[in-house]
Amino acid sequence: MLSGLAPMSVAGTPSGPTDAAPPSYLLSPSQAYDIERRSQRSALVARAGEEIMAWLKVFASAAVYATLIVTFGMQVARVEGKSMEPTLADQDRLIVNKALYKFFRPPEPGEVVMLYYPRDPDKSFVKRIIAMEGDTVRIEDGRVYVNEVPLADEYVPPDFRDHGNHGPEVVGPAQYFVMGDNRRNSSDSRAWGQVPEKYVIGKVQLRWWPLTTARLF
């Protein structure tokens, strides 16, 4: 007699009750509907989880790229004050190219740059480079001379010139002499001295706002 033995399945496992759903032909319509709804919810939850992970990866990548761009490439800046008029106006928005001086070449006279204020590096200014290491700067009656040659500064209209005197002054090693284009209303190297090269953040590359006066430099 084998009646005392539990029946075995083909795979060798007991054929007793399991958690598997009964065949669909044994389900009532409401039971089949509930199972379908649970299946759809599980699929939606899984899909939502995948979407969230994908967006998190996008945001993380964007944060890394933005950090790299700000640190080594470009920086958005805003002009505060009137010292660079008429070239730049108060509240103009700028794009500063930091990579140019960091990886390719040093700053050059004539370029508009963003720099750290030598007396307080927590502050930053926008000025124009007038002279570099080894140059001699002299200002007489508002006229700027570099190595005794009159500076070609047609970007300064007559109303923005002053009549002050300065120097002569020799620009030191790894230093720059900077001035604002609004000579009558600019705190610059005439007042607080030369700027170390390491304090030059980058070249002002673009004014993007206001859109009506957008331009490249």
Explain what this protein looks like in three dimensions.
- With 217 residues, the protein is α+β, with helices and mostly antiparallel strands.
- The chain is built from 3 helices and 12 strands, in the order αββαβββββββαβββ.
- Strands 1, 2, 3, 4, 9, 10, 11 and 12 form an 8-stranded antiparallel sheet that branches.
- β5 and β6 (143-146) form a beta hairpin.
- The longest helix has 45 residues, at 29-73.
- The chain is elongated and about 105 Å long.
- It starts with 28 loop residues before the first helix and ends with a strand.
- 22% of the residues are buried.
Main beta sheet strand tally, sense and closure:
8 strands, antiparallel
Helix and strand element order: HEEHEEEEEEEHEEE
CATH fold type of the largest domain: Umud Fragment, subunit A
Structural class: alpha+beta
Summed up, the helix count is 3
Radius of gyration: 35 Å
Find the CATH superfamily of the largest domain. Umud Fragment, subunit A
Residue share in helices?
25-40%
Query: How many E strands?
Result: 12
Q: Just name the CATH architecture of the largest domain.
A: Ribbon
Question: How much is the average pLDDT?
Answer: 84
Q: Terminal Cα separation, in Å?
A: 101 Å
Sheet-strand content, in percent, reads: 25-35%
Low-confidence segments? 1-18
Quick one: CATH class of the largest domain? Mainly Beta
Cα shape: elongated
- Total domains: 2
